[in-house]
Each structure stands twice: as C-alpha cells, then as structure tokens.
C-alpha cells in the first residue's frame, strides 16, 4: 500500500515560488555547455533539462513525499502509542496474574513508538532542509550547487525508503515479537497470551513495513530518466 498525494497545490506552488525567487537573476535558458552536470546514472534526456527546472521538480516532489511520510509516521506512531496507553490503563482492572500480559503489550508499543522517534523517514529532515537552503538569501545564487544538494537528498531519501523494506527489517520484526511471546510463555506459562502478543505485534510490524512511503524510489528513477 502506498500513500499518495497530488503534486499540485499550495505547498508545491510555494516551493516553485521559492526556487524562482532564489534564482532570480540567473539567466535561462543557458547554453548546453553551461548546464549543470548530471549524476553518473542520469540519462541524456536529464542533461537536456534546464537546471532550474530540475531543481524545482526535485523540491516539489520531495515536499509531496514529505507529506506522505509525515502522515504515515504520525498515523502509525500515534495509533501504537494509544494502544500502549490503553494497555496500561487496563492493568488495574485485570487479574493480578494477567497484568504481565498487558505490561508486555505496553512495552511492545513503547518500542514501536521509539522506532518512529529515533529513526523517522529521512525525508522528514531532507525536504524541509532543502526548502530552507533554496530560500536562504544569497547575492549570487549558484544553481548548480543547489541542484547538487537537491540530487543528493533525493538519492538519500530513496535509499532510506528502500532500506526500510529489506529482509533484515522483516526478520527483526518477527524475532522481536517472537521473543515477547517466549517471554510470556517460558517466564509465566502464559502461552495463549504470549501467542496473541507475538502474532498481533508481528502483524502490525509487517503492516507498518508494507505501508511505508516509497514514492521517492520512483521519483529517483523518473528524475534520472529525465521523464518530466
């Protein structure tokens, strides 16, 4: 599942205005020999695009992808946090011998929230940083330096999204939740609740991985092909 949002709208318009203002005074169209270098994997079609257009395209798409990533992060993070709080609230109302099951659920939720806090999608930092860099006042804008920075951020964010779906992320999720199940089973002989905790936690973890934003991966491919 991929969260999507349109590129058009106030956010994209603001980015375009910022890029134009930052590059005011830069003369376009430039001669072919004056255009900015293209990445090693870039196509000849990309080289034919004006640098200002390339920069605006990256800024627009990173801003759109940032919105998706923010929705995913706060949606899942908030939901998991609420589940953890609910587990703690329920503790006084359950039998004393069952409270460890609910505490374990709260711990599992806490680990899930911590993952969003300490390892959020890279684009949540990169997109605002690029907008700030573009909007920064400068006497003589260096479009090639701005474009190189934007391209580096696009590559970084695409790699971050790809890495979050690799096999070891799935394995870590399954091992962590299996460990919670074994903790309740071996430690307290609560095999039923241990199985429920393990299966529910693993299912939620896999859902988080499979619904992660991946738009920047496609955006990088489109950009390198010059398909815009």
């Amino acid at each position: 599942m991929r969260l999507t949002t349109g590129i058009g709208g106030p956010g994209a318009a603001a980015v375009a205005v910022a890029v134009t203002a930052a590059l005011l005074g830069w003369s376009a169209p430039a001669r072919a020999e004056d255009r900015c270098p293209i990445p090693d994997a870039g196509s000849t079609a990309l080289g034919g695009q004006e640098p200002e257009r390339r920069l605006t395209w990256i800024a627009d798409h990173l801003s759109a992808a940032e919105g998706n990533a923010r929705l995913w992060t706060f949606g899942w993070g908030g939901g998991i946090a609420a589940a953890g709080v609910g587990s703690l609230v329920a503790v006084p109302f359950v039998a004393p011998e069952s409270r460890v099951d609910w505490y374990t659920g709260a711990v599992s939720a806490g680990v899930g929230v911590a993952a969003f806090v300490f390892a959020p999608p890279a684009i949540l930092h990169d997109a605002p940083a690029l907008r700030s860099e573009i909007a920064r006042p400068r006497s003589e804008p260096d479009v090639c330096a701005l474009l190189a920075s934007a391209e580096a951020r696009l590559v970084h964010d695409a790699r971050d999204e790809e890495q979050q779906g690799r096999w070891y992320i799935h394995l870590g999720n399954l091992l962590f939740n299996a460990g919670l199940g074994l903790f309740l089973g071996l430690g307290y002989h609560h095999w039923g609740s241990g199985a429920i905790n393990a299966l529910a936690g693993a299912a939620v973890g896999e859902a988080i991985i499979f619904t992660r934003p991946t738009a920047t991966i496609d955006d990088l491919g489109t950009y390198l092909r010059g398909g815009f």
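The chain has nine helices and no strands. The radius of gyration is 23 Å.
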